[in-house]
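Appendix C reproduces, verbatim, an entry submitted by the partner laboratory led by Prof. M.T., so that reviewers can inspect both the input and the predicted structure.
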Amino acid sequence: MNTDVAGRVRNVQLPVSKPLMPLFETINNSIEAIADAGEPHGRIEVVVVRDESTLFTEAVSSSDRQLADITCFEVRDNGIGFDERNYEAFNKSDTTYKASRGGKGIGRFMWLAAFDRAEIESVFIIDGQSKRRRFTFCPRGLGIENHSCDDAPGEKRGTIIRLVEYKERYRKQCPKRLDTIAAFIIEEFLDVFVGPSCPGITLHDKSTSQTIELDKFYDAEMVANSEMKQIKIKDKSFDVLHVRLYSTHIPEHRLYLCACYRVVTREKLTGIHNLIPRFRDDKGKEFVYAAYVSSSVLDNAVNADRTGFNLFEDSSELLTDETSLSDIRKAIR
């Protein structure tokens, strides 16, 4: 069955309030590609490209360049690459290829909801030989243009994905500062940073040459300690990761609901008696509290666009003993 990519993209529900979601999908693909490769020294580099027309005028100082609009993200990894199996899955709309990981098969369509196109260059190994695959993914026809696959003797395995020409409605909502983007990436992938096999992830600003190593940023500004606990809600098990967030980019206590251990929704944590805006640790450093909630209940209820859950808001609306969003919120409080 052929897919009208432009029509599929029109059906993607990507809120303008989530301008970084296409970037998160790309980073997640890189994390999975590294895992699939069995790469013990995984590396991901995220490059931020800004609007060149505003960067080097006399009116723009070097410090102001970090506030120029972002037009492109480039993500590089040393994962398994676009071999025949991965390329075939990429060409199949709503594929179940990554269903066991919570993949809905639509992440790449989010690229085209927010960007004009994605340019992919990937080196993979087959029968001990390196091959390089290049193609452009765009909202025209079947979606693939300028495809080539050639020998690449001696080249190292890995993939580069460029999300090109950020659409204005998302670009205007995108955070500008590199450290703010770093904080959002760590928020999204906190379970990866907490876990034992986090790849080395760097964030680089092409305009200012600023680079942030996210594992060091995580250690210094985001999390001092965390604790995982399991709770029961209506006889269903939920894992709750309790975290202290020290970053000034996160101004309030938050509740994160996750599917397959990736953040789907984030909201202000409310309804707790005498909850002060920020806590202090024994060294006087301020932090906010965050709860990351995961469960098979949430895995099974996440919507196709990973923007929410197909759960009732309140138990009073239910005739059965199903878990509602209000049940989850009350249990965390």
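The mean pLDDT is 86. Additional entries are available on request from the coordinating office.
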